[in-house]
Structures are given as C-alpha cells and as structure tokens.
Specification:
It is built from 11 helices and 7 strands. With 274 residues, it is an alpha/beta fold. The protein folds into 2 domains: 181 residues, Vaccinia Virus protein VP39 (Rossmann fold); 65 residues, no CATH class. The protein has a 7-stranded mixed sheet with strand order 3-2-1-4-5-7-6, sandwiched between helices. Strand 2, helix 4 and strand 3 form a beta-alpha-beta unit. Helix 1 packs parallel to helix 4. The longest helix has 21 residues. It starts with 11 loop residues before the first helix and ends in an 8-residue tail after the last strand.
Length: 274
C-alpha cells in the first residue's frame, strides 16, 4: 500500500508548519509530560532518536528532558519544522541533531549507530512498508534500550481500515476545493458527534491540547490526508516484535477504534532476527 510511484502522498510537513504557528509554552509542557510518562525512564544524558520527527515537538520534549536527541524525517518540510524548533529553543546545541532521512533506507540507518530510546509515534504506518519500517527502526535499539512506537489500530468492517485507506488516497489526489469540502464536512461531523452524546464540543476542542500538546484541527487534517496508510492489530505488533527481536513488552496503551495504539518494548542483551 502506498509504495507505487503513481500513488499520491500527504504533505505532512505543510500541516506541521501550520501547527507550529499555534505552538505555545503550555503545549510544549504537555508534550514533554506525555513523552516522560510514556517512556517512564530518566532521559538525562540518554541517546534518543525520533524517527519521523514531524513538527519536532517530541524531539523538543526529549531534549528538554535531558536526552541527546537525533531527529530525522523523510519530508523536507517536516525537517524544516524540526530545525525551526531546535533553533528557537536550543540554538547552537551540539546535543540535538536534525537530518533528512528515511527509515526505509538501510544504508542511511547503518550510519546512525544504536540508541537508548528509539521513538516513532504515528509514523511507521505512513511509510508504505510498515513492517519493514518497524523492523528497521527496532534494529536501532541498543541492548537494554527502549523501543517506543505508536501504530494505527486495524479495524475491519465498512468503516474500518480498508475504507479509510481508500478515502485517504482519494483525498491526497483530489483538487484542493474537494479536499476543503471533505475537511469541512468531517470537522462539522466530529463537532456534532460530541454534541449528540451530550458532550460540550467547544470544551473538547479547547482541551484537545491535553492530548500530547496536539491541535484538534491539525490532527483531523492529518487523519484525513495521512497516506500512505497501514494499520495492525495490537496482537500483530506484539507477535512481530517479539518474534523478530525478543523484546519484552513494558507498556501498551491500546485503542479499540481506528486511532493509534502505543507500545513500549525493552531490548534484552542481544537482538534476534530471522
């Protein structure tokens, strides 16, 4: 899925650039707490690689927590966003490196070494080769290190993963006026769905930043356009990582719908692949 030359792809970097315009100290603090809670390990002087750094917010969070950070992204605009945050908050910092690169490029990855924390939240399912991306990313984990990933949860049925894959592919290839119409319809539906069950949609939008410091509108646009797009059940993720690497599951936060499920694995003293 999503690896053919004729397939459209979502402009993730453009969406992140708009997100940075609304970035506040409060959002940064929330994101920093979310990374700290998910990793649940003292990051001071630890090496932390952010695969698919996007806006750079999680890289910034890790650096604020004391990690030596290495960020890379395939999309040049996303790289520029991460570089902007680095320049804004840690100018001339030798402990935060930002580069362009692909998790599917094994030659590039071979130059990086291994890390105490390999972090990739909501990224590997957008590469067009999700299982290869997961395997390549896991190889960067140092013995005793952590592998922290967020992957879209697979769901069957008419409103499940396969349907959304088709919608996302259509969106990325559609004229801008059609994209805007679909965005407006979906945002209105999402807003109304909260009101329909007696929840205050205005409050929901205002409090959305408590989810890792993110923006409701930017996340909706990312969801509608996020293509290539793959997903997996939690069981598939667990079986794959354990079989390939014998990593131990430390933590999982499972989503029962279509959104992202989180996994934190710990590497043993050696890696095993087959």
């Amino acid at each position: 899925m999503g690896n053919r030359a004729t397939d459209p792809a979502f402009a993730f970097g453009e969406n992140w650039a708009r997100f940075l315009k609304a970035l506040s100290d409060e959002r940064i603090e929330i994101a920093t707490r979310s990374v700290s809670t998910l990793v649940a390990r003292d990051l001071r002087d630890k090496t932390f690689i952010d695969i698919g750094s996007g806006s750079g917010l999680f890289s910034l969070a890790a650096r604020r927590l004391g990690a030596r950070v290495y960020s890379f992204d395939y999309d040049p605009r996303s790289v520029a966003c991460t570089q902007e945050l680095r320049q804004r908050f840690f100018p001339r910092d030798e402990h935060w490196t930002v580069e362009q690169g692909s998790v599917l490029d094994e030659g590039y990855l071979a130059t990086l070494g291994q890390f105490d924390v390999v972090f990739s939240w909501g990224v590997l399912h957008h590469t067009g080769k999700m299982w290869t991306a997961i395997e390549n990313a896991a190889r960067l984990v140092r013995a005793g290190g952590l592998f922290v990933i967020g992957i879209y949860n697979f769901r069957g049925g008419r409103r499940g993963t396969a349907t959304w894959a088709r919608l996302k592919r259509w969106y990325c290839g559609a004229p801008r006026w059609q994209q805007l119409a679909w965005e407006t319809a979906y945002l209105a539906w999402d807003f109304a769905s909260y009101a329909a069950v007696g929840r205050n949609p205005i409050k929901m939008i205002r409090e959305y930043k408590t989810r890792r410091g993110m923006s409701w509108r930017r996340d909706v646009i990312d969801w509608l356009g996020g293509y290539p797009y793959e997903a997996a059940t939690p069981g598939e993720i667990l079986e794959f990582v354990r079989r390939k690497f014998h990593f131990e599951l430390v933590k999982q936060n499972i989503d029962c719908q279509l959104a992202v499920s989180e996994f934190v694995f710990e590497s043993g003293t050696r890696h095993h692949t087959q």
